Amino acid sequence: MNIEKMARKIERHYNSHGVALKLIKCEVIRNGERYIYTIKLKPGTKESGIFDRAQDIRTALQLPLFQPFREGLLICIAVSERPVMQNSLQRMLESRGFHGSGMWIPIALGYDMKGAMRFADLTKFPHALYGGATNSGKTVGLRSLIVSIVAKQPVNKANFLIIDTGASGLDIFNPLPHLSCPIVKDTETAIKVMLALTDEMKRRTSLPDDELRLLPALVCIVDEYVSLITSMGDTKDRKVLTDSISNLLRKGRHAKIHMVLATQESAKQDMLINCNNLNARMAFTCSDFYSSRSILGEGGAEKLPGKGVMLFKSPEQPKPLCLQGACISTKDIEQLIVRITSATHDFRNKFVIEESEKLQMPIVETGVLEQRTLKDNKELADIIMWALNRKSISTLQIQREFRMGNRAADLVEELGKMNLIADKFANLPRAVLPQCIEDIPFEVTKFLSENGFSVNDIAVAIQNRNREQCDMQHF
Question: What does pTM read for this prediction?
């Protein structure tokens, strides 16, 4: 790229929009990967015009990257003539900056406009707010946060509580041993979990410092926060939930508890909590100035181009920092989770909410299936049909196939009580017992029928497995 020629083009396009400026310096990044121009405004020109007209000029010049940003007192523009998608979370997690940083609860935020990696420590905030329009990158940002922490800290150093009632973008993390309870999908369980976390905060704040130091940090993530409380209406339950969250925001840092709320664009009053303790703000693209201000405390996010670009603000970063948010593929997350679940962990000080798992599990009695929730019964029916297609099964296989956590072990035991799988022997997978449909207890057949599987479906599943075994023997 011809640096001077591009500078004059940019100046002409801004001048045509009534924004008089001059590009006075250019820094070349990584042998021309991108160029950073420093802007000098001419008298009478407002700096807001630089950001307001950026999208128009990006389109006119057909540039993959054209992003104004602030660096201290300077205003700069990052420019590239070729696609620049430097957003690899994996690369950040493998860097010396991540492993040698000394961060306790690390967040690999992303890359600044000069391509430098940017990290933050959640313990310094100690709470955070992720916000922006639909598909702006919030869920990707939350995934990066979770992956960053579990890649750095074992179970005895950090535990998670995840409430995700409005979507399924975080369900992939259900197998993690770091979870204090399965990912919460309903408002009733959300209230119980938040009350349990509040009780744990009270217990921890009464402990001596040397005892508290041994306990893991607790990171509570509430995705689609405003949608969650809106769905509850003006009820007593909603007040219980918001009061609990407010209490945790005020006092949680003294108990090593960190709240992370994520929401779509909404007015500050819609939050129904005091947001002042949400000291870190990650604002993705917003539809207007008012939405940006409700999330970030000021405008600017409404001018972002999308695709995971965000403005980050914290006590240590009071001026919004423009970043390309880090990203990791679903496949890479799954591989990381498999490695983590296969490792040995120290669970001695793990914070566990036993009741939440019971609330969300289908309840199965020996020889009898009692329906409690339609969603959990359908999940159990799917697992039974999946098992009937296999020669043997294990807890880890269920965790991988159905993306769930510790309750997979309980479900395996329930399959044993139904006489569908053999007793446990050493650490070997447990053999699937039925060789024909007559081997399946009547209660199980009836349960499967009530959840969408016919007698023929069951017979075909067993036949497919028997046929596969026969084919392997002939081979």
Answer: 0.70
